[in-house]
Amino acid sequence: MASRRLALNLRQGLKAPRAGLSLPPLRRGLATPVASPALKTQSTTLKNGLTVATHYSPYASTSTVGVWIDAGSRAETEETNGTAHFLEHLAFKGTAKRSQHQLELEIENLGAHLNAYTSRENTVYFAKSLNDDVPQCVDILADILQNSKLEESAIERERDVILRESEEVEKQLEEVVFDHLHATAFQQQPLGRTILGPRKNIQEITRTELTNYIKNNYTADRMVLVGAGGIPHEQLVELAEKNFTNLPASSPQTGAYLQSKKRSDFIGSDVRIRDDTIPTANVAIAVEGVSWNDDDYFTALVTQAIVGNYDKALGNAPHQGSKLSGLVHQNNLANSFMSFSTSYSDTGLWGIYLVSDQLTRIDDLIHFALREWSRLSINVTQAEVERAKAQLKASILLSLDGTTAVAEDIGRQIITTGSRMSPGEIERVIDAITEKDVMDFANRKLWDQDIAISAVGSVEDVFDYARIRADMSRNF
User: Does 88 participate in catalysis according to the annotation?
Assistant: First the structure.
């Protein structure tokens, strides 16, 4: 009844005014955009060189805090390759303040998640918890990084675990192909080594090598403490000053450190591991890509998206957008392919990963893939660039769903470039890319460039390097 009366009053109030009365016209107010500083990434550098960066969301009830370290397998020598990953395993096995049982119980009682991972250039330790538990999580992270006991018994137990993990990785063909791709593209260089290291190293790594890696690489100038979610910037800075002031300020200039900072040289070459018990040919082909800081970074991603991905097993396989996927599907040339643009601090790999059980047509598959690369130098339409840009923007924004993903984005960007581009800034950069930019990138980076090839499985019919290399400058 009340709602009807209200509606009636509104209708009467909106009737035309009686003669002689002058009412102001009804106008709709305009919304005023508000740019809240709380939604920006804030950064502070402590006296010892540790960077603290946060993205504060005042309405979030959880937070992710973590430490991103500018040291991974690239900071190792040939003899110590695998040390960074070994340390990641030992991080949760007890500290001077907490036994392994106490550490696990403390995290479980908080309902928090504690994790870590190692890449070629970074090591990351992070925790996700309720906002009120962030101080305890920061204390745990600081304890792990500065006071790990590295007991001999724990080292021996984890040695067996890592060896089993290595065996599992060797069964994953994609991992194997990409490890060999790095090894051939960056021969005899730190970037070409695997993250887990060779089995010989895993079996022989000692406590001395582990402690030396921490001493040489876990320093304040190579670390970023990141917070994302409901943790205010000022609070995380206070926690950093409380827990991380004893970190060494800078890394010693060891031979391994100097080698890790030396620019990697891309080498045109190939490696083939023929195994006819594998029913598919698994081939990765790459040119030298771009670094995180390169002006062409986003152009490389758009160009990669134009080449696209394909998977015959998907229901939308005939309609996956890219010209190459249509051609591959119509002619049944591959089970799947995936274009990629992988970046590092000073270089990268831009290429395609092909999987096919059509073993007598591998040459056709590679030929048409490289012919698509050549086309990018000559003729790119506005429609396919716009499609690639839309896909890329959606991919980037969807990947930032949750505090852990945002913390990952902040840590990766600051540790590699020194600052963080917001999603809005990234969108504007991508929107500005044109088909002319793509063709210019392809002319400089793809046309008649040396390639690295990694092939595993039934690869007898993969043609020799010179034949494949000649396809990099095809005139249609």
Answer: yes
